[in-house]
Amino acid sequence: MMKSKADEEDFWNSSKCKPFTFDDEDDEFSKLKESKQTVKNIRPLVDEDEDEDDVEKISWSGEPVGSISWSVRETAASSQRTEREPAFPKINTDTPAISRSLSGYSLSALFKGGTAQSDSSVRLYAPELRKPKSEYKDIVSDWSPEHTVQRMQQGKVVHLEKFRSLQDKLLLLDFAVSAHDGNVITAVLIYLKRTLSKEVLFRELESRQTALRHFIHYLTETRDQRLLLELLRSRTSPLLQYKEHLSIADENKRRDFLKSCLSLPFSPEDSAHVQDHYTLLERQIIIEATDRHAERGGKVEIFQKFPRRASILNMPLITTLYYCCFYHYHESEGTYSSPLNIRQTFRISDKQYFVTALAARAKLKAWSDVDALFTSRNWLGFTRKKSPLSFQRVVDILHRNSAPTQVLQEYVGLVDDSDLRISLAQKHKCHDIVINTYRDLKDRQLLLGYLSKVERGSAEAGKINQLLSNQQIRWRN
Amino acid sequence: MAHSARRDSPELPDFSMLKRLVKDQLIYLLEQLPGKKDLFIEADLMSPLDRIANVSILKQHEVDKLYKVEYKPVMSTSEQLCFLIRPRIQTVKWICDVVNADKTAGKCRRYKLIFTPQKFYACEAVLEEEGIFGDVSTDEWTFNLLPLDEDILSLELPEFFQDYFLAGDQRWVRTAGTALHLLHSLYGPFSKVYGIGRCSKMVYELWREQVEEGEQKAHQAEIGKVFLIDRDVDFVTPLCSQVVYEGLVDDIFRIKCGGYQSSSWRGCVEFGPDVTSSDKSVKVMLNSQDKVFNEIRNEHFSNVFGFLSQKARNLQTAYDKRRGMDIKQIKAFVSEELKGLKQEHRQLSLHIGASESIMKKKTKQDFQELLKTEHSLLEGFEIRECISFIEEHMNRQVSMIESLRLLCLLSITENGLLPKDYRSLKAQYLQSYGVDHLFTFVSLRQLGLLVEQQPGDTLTVMESKVGKLVNDKTAGKLTDAFSSLAKKSNFRALSRKLSLVPKSDEEYDLRVPRDMAYIFSGAYIPLSCKLIEQVLERDSWTGLEEVTRLLNGHEFAAAGSSGADLSEKNDAQRIILVMFLGGCTFSEISALRFLGRERGYRFIVVTTAITNSSRLLEALLDNHV
């Protein structure tokens, strides 16, 4: 962080980052275009003797005909068709299929009998894979917690009801935890949940973090919201309760629910966020009602020219600000939908406000509003252009909103760094800026070079020629 | 690249046996329900299943119709319903509804639930509660390893990450142990196992148990060493933008399989019309079978253009050879070369299209500036500028995931944010993307991805004292209680210790990579891969004590099975299996392939799922508290 400015530029220009850029119009990129052309030109050669798509089916479609995903889609399509037909039970006429399974092809025969065709090497290495666990049947008398956990891990039958005393239950749980098997831990917890009062269970879980987290996840998965809230009472529960709002579709009910959340014991920081959420939704409901009405009335020009694409309800704050800068920019600060009012209510920073307003006004091509955003007066009454955002970024935003060259030119000219200014000017074809910068640098060669980039006979070309023939300038080269 | 001085990398074991095993087991399970039946398949199992079996195999075993599990009433008229599902409570509840609806309607059918990779007690408890235990039969299909490529095996469990690291649920730990055991019994015995992270240690112990229970089989080992690593040991690497071709493709063309947005890479990519330069999308299997892809997958994106244009020229020449041939020669050309050329042509035009589309997308979003910010974060340089870049990113409401990614990268590399910055950045994030993201921030803090700096380092001191004072068993419990504190990233110190960030004044030629940093344009060596390199070099953790302390410990190294052949001459000793618990990225795989070429190793990557920054963060968006 202590590096000097020179170091910094050095860094950005260092060879490490340089050999390749993702900027367009790069040599590499044109090379790619060339290759594309080459390959494209080959195409007719190939097509003339193309024996249809058979190769394509095998190697190029990730979903060849006969694949499972393909077939599922077929079922979906056909079931829509058959829905309308009377649902007679189908008579099975598929005898070939049955006879095939009897013809010694059956793989189950291979598993059970181990016929000659079976691949003995595979069977030798992994016999456990071929035998479903349900086939193991044995009688055991050792019911120690350790052994029980072991059997559970192997998917064997166990008798948990033998564990009746609290001490036995907890021992069982602790063994499950030390076996690292989440499946078994949850299984024991399900048993404990059934056989212990929740007060006792919760108390014991407090000192058993791993088990506790499994229990929380289990309750989350089974959507046992009630028990979950009780368990987490002292933890993150205000947030959990607040989360409920996501399941409320009606905006008025949602707003009321959010209001009821305001009294929950959030951290001071989160409490401010939830308060903002409530205020925002309340406001969105008012704006939405008014604007929908105005749009239907057909009297307000802006809604006619730029019909709203979606409702503003439940949108983030910045989106709402953008919306208001778009439709309600010049409203007085007293209204709910005034951008200035929103800015103040939600303590929006200069930069946030500026970026959003700039994008919205540029989208509308309201260049005078854009201009006004930058203009500030100093104490002597002079106006000058100021921006909380780098002018490079400003140019970028304007360019994305297809600002004309005259508008871009003004802001490109405000970029401090001369190299950056030139590259931006070249990119956006602000010829004047390029020419003037080269003139100021007294760089005759660069200016000469630029002559080939502007249209012959244009005003820019004239200007360059005039400068080049100007005897007053003392060129450096 | 010159490899002449190095030993040749040994051959990889053949993993097609894994596919055959699970296919046979599936057939066996289907035959347990004889007669015609309709099969319902869980959406995220469809495409893994496609790689194992196809419809004709299912039909041969009397599967009549196939349906996707969609949580809707079933239309099937079949007498027998079979469900191929993940052990999820939601799915089991839906099946209970189906069965109970049939009961009410007086319909009599047979039902079979096949859980994969295993069933959970919690699911059976649902069957019991809903009163259908006994009305349905259940079974397990031990499909826990899918070969995605010759050197990548996936457990296809993207939820492993949320379940273990966020919820603290260890349900998949045993699954991982079982997968390791399967590899051990087929391709082992392993001679040495290293690992780092709590989950790794548990997986190791569960594997060990299974080895001891089972009988030893003496055969020639095909895999020598194993390295287990938890995803939370290194969060920086998966959060960086990928610039190696395969990683870029994964970042940009979000993989869709079977018509739904998949949360994990299943090895195939859908290229849209912009890539195929026609009006239809193409789904493509990207693996070593695609020769063009195989040559560029590990390359830095800047090298890809040159390669593709060279290829295009060669192809042109090969086609041009035809001119002036007589009939006999043309006949030979058609029978010997044409097919290969046509395939290459198809692959080439696709990858050129993909590269072009990548360029377009990346130039549109100021990728260059984004990379600069990432690189300065990694270097710990001009942090204020980075913060203001991130602020602008959020203020302009550019991608919500990108903003989050940069915030996390900032927090991890800076060892947490200053309270003032944390509050202001969080507020701006909520204002731009919605207050609902309060939950996202809770999750991020829990994982240690986005945290406030603690006042002073007093807590870590206390923690280490406690760790020294008490014996192991109680220490386990205490560290659990301190788990939120234990997740200090210490990235800066680690980066210095392991020289992860090469000096910026040195030139880095991406065409001739000198170390694994090439996968991030020479700006950063992935921590995960660097650890693996260091441990393999030393054959132990000795000398890395300071590093493991900074990583919060939990490292281990143990001898494998007694029957293992340890001699260095044995090729298997240079085949190393790396298991990522919680996912790994293609960039990491590329880095390991590079390391393998440099040192004469071959790496096999086993991962719970292929991940990238978007998948990692999206997993946290809808998972709260």
Shape of chain B: globular
Helix content of chain A: 55-70%
State the major sheet of chain B.
7 strands, mixed
Q: Could you give the order of strands across the largest sheet of chain B?
A: 6-7-16-15-9-8-14
Largest interface: pair, residues per side: A-B, 135 and 151 residues
Strand content of chain B: 5-15%
Pick out the low-confidence regions of chain B. Answer: 1-5, 256-266, 457-486
Count of separate DSSP helical elements of chain B: 27
Q: Which stretches of chain A are low in confidence, meaning pLDDT under 50 for 5 or more residues running?
A: 1-19, 47-65, 81-128, 134-138
Strand content of chain A: under 5%
**Lateral strand order in the biggest sheet of chain A:** 1-2
The percent of residues in helical segments of chain B reads 40-55%
Series of H and E elements of chain A: HHHHHHHHHHHHHHHHHHHHHHEEHHHHHH
Radius of gyration of chain B from the CA trace? 26 Å
Count of extended strands of chain A: 2
Radius of gyration of chain A: 37 Å
Distance between the termini of chain B: 50 Å
Number of strands of chain B: 16
Specify the structural class of chain A: mainly alpha
**Biggest sheet architecture of chain A:** 2 strands, antiparallel
What would you say this structure looks like, in words?
The complex is a heterodimer of chains A (477) and B (625). In chain A, 26% of the residues are buried. Chain A is mostly helical. Chain A has helices at residues 5-13, 27-48, 54-60, 68-83, 95-102, 107-113, 120-125, 127-130, 145-153, 166-178, 182-195, 198-206, 209-221, 225-231, 237-243, 251-261, 268-297, 301-305, 317-327, 339-345, 350-363, 367-374, 391-400, 405-412, 418-427, 431-441, 444-451, 459-468, and strands spanning 375-377, 383-385. Chain A is elongated. In chain A, helix 19 crosses helix 21 and helix 27 runs antiparallel to helix 28 (459-468). Chain B has 625 residues and is α/β, with parallel strands linked by helices. Helices cover 51% and strands 12% of the residues of chain B. In chain B, the strands form 4 sheets. Chain B has a 7-stranded mixed sheet, with helices on both faces. In chain B, strands 2-1-3-4-5 form a 5-stranded parallel sheet. In chain B, helix 15 (367-379) packs antiparallel against helix 16. Chains A and B meet through helix 1, helix 2, helix 3, helix 4 and helix 5 of A and helix 1, helix 2, helix 3, strand 2 and helix 5 of B.
